[in-house]
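Re: [help] complex structure
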Amino acid sequence: MTGISWSGTIAQLTELALAIVVAPLLTGWVNQCRAWLQNKRGPGLLRQYLVLRKLFAKDAVIADRASPLFRATPYVLFGCMCMAAAIVPTLGTELPYAPVADAIALVGILALARVALALAAMDIGTAFGTLGARREMMVGFLAEPALLMVLFAASLLSHTSSLATTVETLSQRELAIYPSLAFAGVAFTMVSLAENARIPIDNPATHLELTMIHEAMILEYSGRHLALIEWAASLKLFVYSCIGIALFFPFGIAHGGDIVGLLLALPALLAKLAIGGVVLALIEILSAKMRIFRAPEFLGTAFMLAVLALLIHALLES
Amino acid sequence: MIDLSPALVRQIIDLLAAVLLLLSFAMLSQRRILSLIDLFATQGFVLALSTAFVASVTGQPHLYWSAGITLGLKVLFLPWALHWLIRRLNVKWDVETLLNIPTTMLVGIVLVILAFNVAQPVSELAGTVTRGTLGIALAAVLLSFLMMITRSKALSQVIGFLAMENGLFFAATAATSGMPMIVELGIALDVLVGMIILVVFFFQIRERFDSLDIHHLEKLKEE
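Output below.
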C-alpha cells in the first residue's frame, strides 16, 4: 500500500485515541457490573480515571537495585498495547497501519509485553515478583498457541492473516452459521479470561493473596509507572474485547474509512463493548477461581477447542 | 416436510454435529460422574433433535420414531437409571482417569483427525444431505472408545459405552438416513438389556470387592 489517504490516517488516529481514552472506562464498567451483580454499590464508572490521575500525581519509588529494565518496562508495556490497539479494527477496516503487523505479529506484540513484565518482576528479586512471573509465563505459554489457533481459524475463512482484511471479509459475508467460528469463539473467551488475569485463572480484585499472578508481578511499582501499567492492563482488556467483537460480531464495522461510517460504527462498538462487559462480569460471578494446577487443563481445553475449529472448518466448510 | 434452502439445512445439521462432537469432548474431560450423566443426556437430546430435523427435511416418517425412541431412552430413562444407580451404590466420587486430562484431549484431537481422514472417502459415496457429518459421527465413536479406555471405574465406562452407541446412531443417520425400523428397535432394546445386565454386574462387583474399580477384576484369587 503506497498512498495513504487522509481519511485513513484520520480513522487510524481516531481509533487509537478512542482505545486509549475508552479503555479505563471499560475496566470501570466491568468492575461496576460485577459490584452490581454482587449487590454492592460499586466504585463508579469513572473510578479508573481517578486512580490513574492519583497515581500520576504521586512520586514513583524505585528499589535501590532496580536496573534500567525495571524503569523501561511500563513504557514498553504501554507502547505494546497501543500498537496492538492500532492493529485491531474497531471502527473501520481501513487502517493504514494495519499492514505493518498481521494476526501472528499481534500475538508476538502481546508476548513481548508479557516477557517485559515478567523480566521486570524478577528484576528486583522479591519472592512475590518471581513467583508471579513464573506463573504468568506458565499461563502464557499455554494461552498463546490457543490464541494463535483461534486467529488461524478466522484466517482460514478469509484466506489471509491480516486482521483488517479478515474482519472485512467476515463482516461482508452473507449470514450463515459457521460451527468453526462458534468453537473458536468459546476458545477465544477462555483465552481472554486467562490473558487478562480474570477469575477462573487469576483474581483481579485482590492485592495480597498467595494465589495472585498479575498483581504479584506489579507489587514493586508505584506512581506513574504503576499508572502506566494499570492503563496498559485496561488497554489489553480493551484490545482483547475488540478482537473478539471484530472476529465474532463484526456487524456494524465501517468498510473503508469514510467519516459517516465511522460515526455510525462508534455507538455500535460502545454497545457491543457494554454487552461484552456485562458478559465478562457474569462469567466472573458464576465461576470460582481454580487452583493454579488446573490452569493447564483450562487452557488445554481452549487449545483443543481452537484446533477442533480448524478441523471442523476443514471437514464441513471447505 | 419443511421447505428450507439446502444451504441452511446443511448448516443446521453441521452445527448439530459440531455440538455433538463438542459434547463428546466435554464428556472426555469431565471429572464428576453426575455432570458426566448430564452431558450424556444432553448428547442424547442433540441426537434426537438432529434426527427429528433430518426426518422433517427428508420427509421420512420412520426417523421420527427413532428420534422419539432416542428421546425416551437416552434422554429420560437411561440418565434416570444411572442417577438411581449412583444413589443406590452411593458412588458420587470424582471420576479417576488413568491419563491426565490434557493428554487425553490431545489423544482425542489425533483421533478426530484420524476419523475425519477415514470418513472422507466414504462420505463421498453417500448421497444424503448429512454426508459431511459422517466424520464427526466416527470421531464421536472413537472418543467414546477413548473414554472407556481412560476411565478406571465401571460406571464411567458404561457411560462411555452408551455414548458410543450415540455415535453409531448418528453415523447411521448421517450415512444412510437411518436404518430400518426393526433394526433400530432391536438396537434400542439391546442397549436397554445391556444396561440392565451391567446393573446386575455392578451390584455383583460391588458386593465382591466393595468398590467399582475394575482393576480388582484383574487379580486372581484362590479361595
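Residues 6-217 of chain B form one domain.
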